[in-house]
Model the fold of this input.
Amino acid sequence: MTLATRERRLGWGLMAPALAWTLAFFVLPFAAMVALSFAHMDGRSIVRGFDPGNYIRFFTDWTLFKALVNSLEITAVVTVVSLVLAYPLAAIIAFRVPARWQRLALLLAVLPFWTSYVVRSYSWLLVLGQNGVVNKALLWAGVIAEPLALSASRTATVIGFVHFFVMLLTLTIYANLIQLSPNYARAAQDLGAGRIATFWHVILPLTLPGVVTGAFLTFVLCIGDYITPQILGGNTELTLPQLIMLQLGRSGNFPLASALSVVLMAVVTLAYAASARWLRLDRL
Amino acid sequence: MRVLIWAYMAAAYAFIFLPVLVLVVFSFQDGRLPVPPFQGFTLRWYGSVLGNAKLMSALGNSLLVAVVSSSLALILGFLAAHALARVRLPGSVLLRGLLIAPMTVSYLIIALGLLTVFNQTGVRLSLWTAGIGHVVINLPLCFAITYAAMGDQQRSAERAARDLGASDWQVLVHVSAPMLAPALAAAFFLSVTFSWDEFIIAFLLTRFDVTLPVEIWSMLRSGLSPATNAVGALVFLVSTALVVVLELTLFRKAKP
Done:
């Protein structure tokens, strides 16, 4: 046995457990789910076959399709707002905070990131609710006469999401900014660029891969999340994950839930294709 | 300009900490609702939480699932990373893509896929099935972190060990793993945090014994209560302590 064959055999041996696990518990289940999405319900039993009915129903029934529209709208707003809020914070920490305090500033900025995800949404309920902190404060200050309907709305969902993703994006953008050599900015300013021109033409383009990567992560995590809209959004409108859970829970309609999941997956894949040019998932 | 900058920073930190602050303050509420006005200080909600057998067993379950699934994910990820970094395998780009793929898929989809298969094969839902799901989401993470940490310096050390007569296993256990210790620890603790906090997979793939996030979820159904605040504050305290310890030991040393 040559050394190369021996090496290769060893390589496959080391690779096998992870590969087998991924095939058995990720690829196979996904395939099973896709297959199930082409089945349909007859009363309470599942009839297998090749029936695109679930997909046709999704694209023609507005009550179902609306969930995708809601999800896309919420995700778009959350991604943009989070980026706009997180970038200045990351820049301040990277460029204005003295070097020895930077890690502490960053650690603090993302500390609530480590609290329980479910509890974080619940906390926003306490802040935004009918009797919550914001309403009580505004009433007390005399700004409003009646409590605002902040919770159980899309606004609440967006605030809850933005809170989470501002922390995530501050981390990823900071990591990008800190790697930049100060020479870029110095060179631009030597050549006569003002502060704004330096940022717009030099710093921002250089950090674009990090920004896009963060935006993609935000998109994927936001559009697939069930908890935040379920706790904060009330029942006025449904997002796609909520619709999927509703199909599973109330009606046990696994085929339709599977079809909706395939749609969700397709949307994420499209987002990936759109941003793939700038994505640096390996360098997170 | 300078004032504006610090004002922005202060506002951002206020926004980030507002919900946590409200959560913790009203966990001491001497009243039935965790909303203003603050009616006085009490520790009884913490007492009721620590005396709640269901919560405590859920906490134990969460720890068990997190540690077992993260250990398995770490071992599988480390071995695969070692294979791809050391041996030239055909289709290695494809293999790497396949191992990373679960990272880009929503947890809900991973959970639903597994639920479909478990239903069809008659596997009963338990902490084990949730653990399987958690290995699926943490394996890519462990793989990516250990793979990124494998450098040339390590390759030389491994070659030297092999030249001196060490077997493949000896190299793996006595050279590769110790040299990668910071990366392995980071991957393990990140996995533990993700698994510990994961909701949707645990929700769909467990039945009678549940994990902490699922138990907290069912507490939420009965409306606002300072008891939920107390649980949340305790979880926050534990995670924060863990992060601070990690920051002070592991990541400080990992920095050059």
